[in-house]
Amino acid sequence: MPKAKPRSTGIAPSTRPSKKPAANASGSKSDRRYAPHPALKMLASFESKLLERTGKSSEEWIGIAAKRGPKEEKTLAAWFATEHGFTTNYAAWMAGKTLGGPAFDAYDPESFVENLFRGKHAGLRPLYESVVDFALELGDDSKACPCQTMVPLYRKHVYAEIRPTSGALVIDLVLEGYPPTRRLLAAQKSRAVGNRVTHQVRITNRHEFDAELKAWLRAAYEASNKKRTRTPTKANLELPADLSSALANSKAARATYDTCTPRMQADWIAWIEQAAKAETRTRRIATTIEKLAAGKKKAY
């Protein structure tokens, strides 16, 4: 399902572009340096789709969470995901909504950037601005869309994500088909089904934002409008024994599963296999069977 409310998703819904010209460290200004995060459109559809997907309205889920769920936002989002099968974005959105997050019209990209690069990360701000300057010059459709934890770069789809860490600026890239190198590292395994990021580069100064890295960014940008190939391997489609057994005990779930595309089947399997605890895995299998039995083919 979706991402969350301001605090959870890292954004607060609004469709208004940033109005305030953003002065960056390189001295340039732009009325449209930042664009609304694409998730804002998705958030607008959550209410209706939540009822359609779960049979309950957000107000009903708020009541359930108030009685049974954790009181801290991050653990509440995990509770929605593990106990009730919400996908990442819906779980975070419902957690923020339940706990009364910021208003949805409060999207302020400049504030997100200021918060990301304050304190110990302040020294990385000029480097960050240089990367954004370059990205926005790649094409008129290249957009920087800050949220609380990072600054994603979008064309039709996300092609890179920028975030500060201790002593380095991390640039996550979508570069399918590129073999990892000592510098172009393989991305850390994502717990989110369908995550697009494939590689990661860490830089500490402007000299490291060189021709090689710019070429990778350009390649990611140019490929981002192409239809994504997500053909699962044979290993991705191998049914775990516990899921196979559960499917055998539910004719309705098995029938739906057999009509899923290979990519859909791989996503169900990946969601179950990524569970860190045995009890989480058990709950995810139960949720999978429940959703498949109801005719729902997608894990997210």
What does this molecule look like?
- The chain has 300 residues and is α+β, with helices and mostly antiparallel strands.
- The protein has 3 domains: 93 residues, no CATH class; 115 residues; 59 residues, no CATH class.
- 44% of the residues lie in helices and 10% in strands.
- The chain is built from 13 helices and 8 strands.
- A 6-stranded antiparallel beta sheet has the order 3-4-5-6-8-7, covered by helices on one side. A two-stranded antiparallel sheet has the order 1-2.
- Strand 5 and strand 6 form a beta hairpin.
- Helix 5 crosses helix 6, helix 11 packs across helix 13 and helix 12 runs antiparallel to helix 13.
- The N terminus is likely disordered.
Entry summary:
By secondary structure, the protein is of the alpha+beta class. Helices cover 44% and strands 10% of the residues.
Tags for this model:
single chain; 300 residues; six-stranded antiparallel β-sheet; two-stranded antiparallel ribbon; globular
Q: Give the proportion of residues in helices.
A: 40-55%
Number of helices: 13
Describe the largest sheet: 6 strands, antiparallel
Percent in strands:
5-15%
Strand/helix succession: HEEHHHHHHHEEEEEEHHHHH
Mean pLDDT: 82
- Tally of DSSP β-strands: 8
Distance between the terminal alpha carbons, to the nearest Å?
A: 5 Å
Which consecutive residue ranges, at least 5 long each, have pLDDT under 50? 1-31
